[in-house]
Amino acid sequence: MVAWDLGRLWVLWVPILCIWDSFGTQTGRLAWAQDIVKEFSDEYAWNNNEIPQFNNLVIGKVTGRVYIGAVNKLYQLSPDLELTVSAITGPKEDSPDCSVLPDCPASVQKKLTNNVNKALVIDYAESRLIECGSLFQGVCTVRSLRNISIVEKNVREPVVANNATASTVAFIAPGPDNPPITQVLYVGATFTGSGPYRSEVPAVSSRSLNSDTLFEIAQTAVTTGTRIAVNSLAREQYPINYIYGFSSEGFSYFLTTQMKQSDPSPFHSKLVRVCHSDKDYYSYTEIPIECISDNPMKDYNLAQAAYVGKPGSDLAANLGITAQDDVLFAVFSEGDSAEGDVTSKPSKNSALCVYSLKSIRRKFMHNIQRCFTGTGSRGLGYISPSLPCINTKLTQIREDFCGLDVNTPLGGELPVFAKPVLTFDSLLTGVTATSTGVYTVAFLGTGDGYMKKVVVESASAGVEYANIPISLGHGINSDILFDLKQNHVYIMSDKKLSKVQVQDCSVYKSCGDCLGSKDPYCGWCSLENKCSLRGDCKDAAMDPLYWISYKSGRCTTIASVHPVEIQRTTARTLTLVIDNLPSLDGKFLCVFEANGKTLTTNANRTATGASCTTPRNDLLPLIPAGQHHFTSVLSVKLAEGTDFVSTNFTFFDCNTFSSCTSCVSSYFPCDWCVDGHRCTHDVGENCRNDVLITGIKRVGTSLRSGPNFCPRVNSTSGGSSEILVPSGIKKAIQVKVDNIVTFLLQNRFVCQFNIEGRVTSVNAQLLGDLIYCDKMEFAYTSRAPNISATFAVIWDGSKPLDNPDQIHVLIYRCKEMADNCGKCLSLDEKFECGWCQSSEKCEVKEKCGDQAKSWLNRDQTCPNPRILSFEPTLGPWEGGTNITIRGINLGKEFRDIYGGITVAGIQCDPYEFLYVRTEEIVCKVDGPGTREPRSGPVIVKVADFRGESKQNYEFIHPEIKAIRPRRGPMSGGTRIKILGDYMNAGSHIEAFIGDAPCTIVETRTDKAICITGPSDALTKAEVRMVFDKGTRVLSGRRFEYVEDPKIDYADSGNSGVRKIPKGIPSGGINITVVGANFNYIQDPKMYVIFQDQRHEGPCMVVDNRKMHCKSPKIEAPIAWRSIDNPEPLKLDFGFIMDSVSRVQNLSKVLNSHVLIYPDPEFNEFDEDDGIKYYKSDYLTLNGKNLNRASRETDMKVRIGSKFCNVTSLSLNQLTCKPPEEQPPAWINNQESYDELPEVIVSIGDNLKYNIGKLSYSLGGEGQLPKTVLIGVALGAALLLLVVIGILILYRRKSTESSRVLKNMQEQMDVLELRVAAECKEAFTELQTEITELGIELQHGGIPFLDYRTYCVKILFPSVQDHSVLQWDRPELQRREKGLRMFGQLIMNKTFLVLFIRTLESNRYFSMRDRVNVASLIMVTLQSRMEYCTDILKTLLGDLIDRCMDGKSHPKLLLRRTESVAEKMLSSWFTFLLYKFLHECAGEPLYMLYCAIKHQVDKGPVDAISHEARYSLSEEKLIRQQIEYRQMNVFVSMSPQTIYMSGLDPQGDNMDIPVRVLDCDSISQVKDKSLDTVYRAFPYSQRPKKEDLDLEWRTGTSGRLILYDEDSTTKTEGDWKRINNLNHYRVPDGALLTLVPKQSSMYNISTMSDKSDRHLYHKYETLNLSKMGANHSPPMSRATSPLNHEYDNGLKVWHLVRHEWDNDKDGERHNKMVSEIYLTRLLATKGTLQKFVDDLFETIFSTAHRGSALPLAIKYLFDFLDDQALQHGITDDEVVHTWKSNSLPLRFWVNLIKNPDFVFDIGKSNIVDSCLSVTAQTFMDACSTSEHILGKDSPSSKLLYAKDIPVYKDWVDRYYSDIKNMPVISDQDMNAMLAEESRLHANEFNLNSALHELYQYAVKYNEQLIQTLEDDEFSCKQRLAYKLEQVHNVMQSSE
């Protein structure tokens, strides 16, 4: 199995797809390269084309997990398509003749049969996966959703089709007998006829999901039930293909294809429908569904796939429905005419049609009404006899009619039809759809492996805007599904699943490309100059031109600039015409950007756009050398904003042109001044009284315009631009000139030549139109065959004539161009070279001297042809050998040598196309005709001359004698040596193994080497070689193709149960590879892939099933996040074993990777001289990362010339046994006794460490002389006497008072030093980098709660399982009618407002009741958020009115939750800000929580009082110095723990490093271990520490359970201290295991040290005696030790005692003043400052982290501003307070204090205290009052005293920015509210909420009735009467 990333996919397919140029969007981009983000495939499926691999696909709508049902297999994938679990379902022994029961008659012959997945359904109610396969008559199995390998139940009930091709559709929907509570499994299955038992399986059925009747028919009676079957007469001849199934508004539907009549007839498509509440299927109805084209020749009669979804508002309006109504999207195809009329085989002509479910229901109703009025027959003769319809006299048949026992089953004749949205010339096989904004988008799969993206613009029109190749050549499955956020679609072929982006707007870089793509997701964000989603474009709702959709097509563009270009040395005002310029406030600027410089000028708006000046000349960039202009990007932008429109603008400079031709031919308005010899843009200024030649771009008439009027050198007298001159010859040059005007005739002309940098000038005369240059000698000094000399005609001293044709002089030497006669006479005749026989050189005739007769011209023949070499020199006697002959003078033309070549006396026929004149001949020689050896020279005749080779050519007999090896894998790649004689004979040699070619790579006389090709069978084949026309076969021996090698696993030996290969960057780690068929592989290698580079390591085969490999060396540098605790690199790996492909990319096959850890590092000896003295039996070497990837066998320790035997290896130490005697040193591969031996550690072949030198002799063995010892002793004695004397004198002189004073001073000094140390430590902590913290926070992702849980936690915080989440409440079913009526009253604004006012006016209506009622109302109105918002505004308006009319200060409004409206406001924000939390604010809040938790856990935390060293809360700060030590322990999960929890955190049972403190209690260690091991899992899914024990593995088999309390717990007086790691002496690097309670083992191993053994046995005995074998001690208590006593009146403490005993024996406690430790608050605050700032900045920003301000915030703040205006409030602080009370203090503070309302996390007491301080700071930031701080102020306020003013500025700016934003229209707000209602319409049980609200209506009924009767509007609507009706109905249903 493999999850492919995009890079590999690109490499795989680009070479294939380059021949197509039509992929991508209409703008031509290769869209799919970015669209496909991940792929999954089973590696072996691609190699087996006979079996369709993947059958069905489902996505978990809660977790996003992906499930695939396949042939013989099930897959469970992560949302990113990483394989997590797979399960094997087949093949198994089965036969269609066996019944579903396990016992099969003995006469039936079973065979191994594939299990084809026919149905895959998620049962969300029970959190289980139902998979049905074709085996055992089509039974289904229930599996765990979390782990599909766990089978929860096998049910022996035939459900689905039992072969590979018959169709099956299954889905879960409401059904009898109590919908919608009761859910059933709807199944439509084609009759197969495979076996005698298929008649038991109905065509359509509803099956029970109850555990006791699982998969049985849901309701059965004598003749009826929830099933329909095709009758026995028709089932064989009338196939029904089930395409799709779905449920909508009380009905379940199946889309089918079937014949129009029971007899053979054309196929058409039909919709089948049954009512959810129908227990007898009386409602079973079929009607035709048609997709009708305007082309009468097209009949799209066969449905292929379908999907039911919601439309966009445009499509909904076109269909006459709302955006909340269901729409059926279906794809149809024509029948294949080649198959005849009666066929269900589709053709490639397809169409997409859409149908509203509303129109479908109406069409069903018309058909039913038609029959029930007695019109027509009921049809469906293949189910039951078709009888005339019975007139039932029913006058009213509504759309929800559920059938009667007459006119059933019913086949309606009136079709539901639609016109195609689009038609296609490729087969469509799948469809899904969604909406984005107003648009509806469909994603279509095709039969040839593409996915098409289509905008459905209306019911009959659409646009295809993308065609993405997914799996070329493989049809797309009908299951095309969205991920949870609908940002991607999962699209599947038979062998591959792809995750495809629904959009990638960022690839379009211009507005034209963006809108031209026609992608409805994308639009052009004008002000940000980017293509983006509407939600990613700031202020998109303010102006239609701010975000432009593809339909508008109106890009903001600069239509024109006048002038279009200017001279760089001038400045102009530019006029810009800008189309579709949005209405913008602010100052415009023009920005010119070129060559790295950006220049800005002011712009003025005009009626058509803008105008601005060009920048100052001195500021413009220079024009690059060799160029004449530069193009700048001219942009228009707002002074505060980005560029929103741009174009190119050119600055040119005519002065850069140096010739007339280039000047007047340029693309710029430049003119040439002839006399001034300059190019200018301004002739009036620079070209007065001069002959002017105007440029071709100059506007207006001119006498001389263009390059044809320039004075120029036109050509040579011969018309060529090249003048040939032999070197050393004098020659006069003449050239033709044009346009020499009259005054030029009076000037002197000079010819100028530049030869090898030397300029030579000669005089020239102008005669007519010719320039004659004086004669001069042309010569050059280099050895080049020729050189070019530039040529110019100069007039007036320094002005060259133009030379547009680049006329130049070519000076040449014949002798340098040819070194022999043949080449010389073959030179181009323009050089006039010939062969001078006297000098034997190639020369022009003039340089051959006086011997003119000895000069041969090109028409003569060269003498003395000579053969230098030929090959091959051997050939088979059969002939056919091509011989290549090389020499000199081998003819000038092919005809010179044709017929004149012989080889060993045999004619050799030359090839004309291979002939190289004078140098090389290739000819073909036939055999001599006999098998006798023959040899002779090669002879070439040219005219009368003859050349003969010195070496003879031989005709020989090649012979094959043996091959090695004689066996190789079927896949080929074996390197074979073919041994024999003359193996290199001939020019064309081939080798074959049987009929398969063996590629020749080397030939010699005695052997040939070839590489075998693949074979399709295990066979023995003859070895054959072809030598030109001769064939040789090895007799008596054959080459055998054997099975390809197979690899089961690769293992480094230190991975525990799971086999995992490990390595280090330096390579060389031993890896054992186990598999099969290794013996016949040559030179196997292992490789890993790192940074797209392959790194290889050697392997050695041990036997047929095992080989040893060295881990590859990785050359590229690796950046480790932490070298001390590294996360391993997971690299793909494979093996090179000849050409066997299945051992390559093994990571995909084995679902495993090579883990690369950092190189082991050894420390040098600590001794200063680098010499360690060996004193014991073992040598210990220290280092780090020693055993992460390495074993003892990977390490070699060399001491001099001998080795130290490695006995043990741990993470930080290596122990080895040195030789008994000191070995000699090993220097230059020789032993040396002159020096100490060096200790060298080698890891693999590439890594070595020189540790130091080792000496076996003890240091300091020599003895000091006695005289020295005596001197030292006397000196020490004298010194001692002096000291004693001084002390005596001091004591005599000191008084008692001075001694006391000194003692006090010393105590003060000690105290001062301790205070300074503590402050210094706090300051250091304040400056600590938190990079490591950021890395850890990114590791596990953010565990957001789902919407439903989040809402319930906030709305009903104290209720665990609220009734609104309980769906199975039968008592509410009886009251459904009454609740529905009460719900209608709630939806009446008058009633609801009066209902709330009545409750609030009652003095017995408590605060708790207010909160509960508000939450219930909000839950009830969840699906009607527009109405809910209207009610909320009304209630808030009333509240403000009461506040203003009363005596309370306006600032107190919304301060406390004293009204229902205030609590409703909190709930309103809860609903509408969930998306904002998810996309934006959730991340910094979670980061703050994690940062606090991380910082707290870094220091000691008291498990009893919950005080901590690191805290923001003064109350929870440890005010003592706690000594502690940080440790790393390695924790693993026992298999039982993993099994019990159902979670495998790492995929293998590895020891995971966990950071702990030695003072941590055992429970705290368990907490930290679970946090680390399960950091990727939400808190609720983790095992609980109360269910686990902590086990210390003390050796290879020793075990010790660690408890908070046991019999070893220390007691001091009436205090008992809970145990910690230090108590048990757990060392750094200890191995711990979390095991389930009551399953721990106490098998302590025998320890080597007696004292240790005694200690461990002591602990074991104590544990057992105290707790028993199956009990654990109580966990740490959370209550205060000050008032809680335990077993024997003892108080428990951990780190801090809060009561101290009285001083004993006069002992004084030297305590530090506890307030000194308050500096730790500052240290903790400084560390967390960044996270607090990030959270506050995110909350108080209108656009942050790519997310726009939620509309709800702007809408409510505008409402409060309006209310303030209405009530004449001008005090800004009042409105500021209202806003703070409504949102920050009501919503955000709650979440800051309780992040567990948003995330699935655990929150400790100390973390809660820190969050409370943060929340208080947040509240202070929102307050308008000034806080006066003093020494008695709370520490929390002092802590953030300097920050709060900054935060207050943020709040003020935030409120101001929101106020300045454009007002949100009610239409936009309502659209957003409607979308929220749609997204979360079915989250809660509304009947439960209504029932609880109704209890309040009953409780306060009298007062409520009175209020309703007193209100005028209520009386008009008779609301009191309607409430009485509700009471009556509710009472009658009890």
Automatic annotation (TrEMBL):
It holds the Pfam family PSI_PlexinA-B. Residues 29-502 form the Sema domain. This is Sema domain-containing protein. The keyword Transmembrane applies. It is a single-pass type I membrane protein. Belongs to the plexin family. Keywords: Cell membrane, Developmental protein, Disulfide bond, Glycoprotein, Membrane, Neurogenesis, Receptor, Repeat, Signal, Transmembrane, Transmembrane helix. It is found in: Cell membrane. It comes from the Eukaryota. GO terms for cellular component: plasma membrane; plasma membrane bounded cell projection; semaphorin receptor complex. Coiled coil: none annotated. PROSITE patterns: SEMA. Residues 1-24 form the signal peptide. GO terms for molecular function: semaphorin receptor activity. Its main location: membrane. The chain crosses the membrane at residues 1268-1290, 1379-1399.
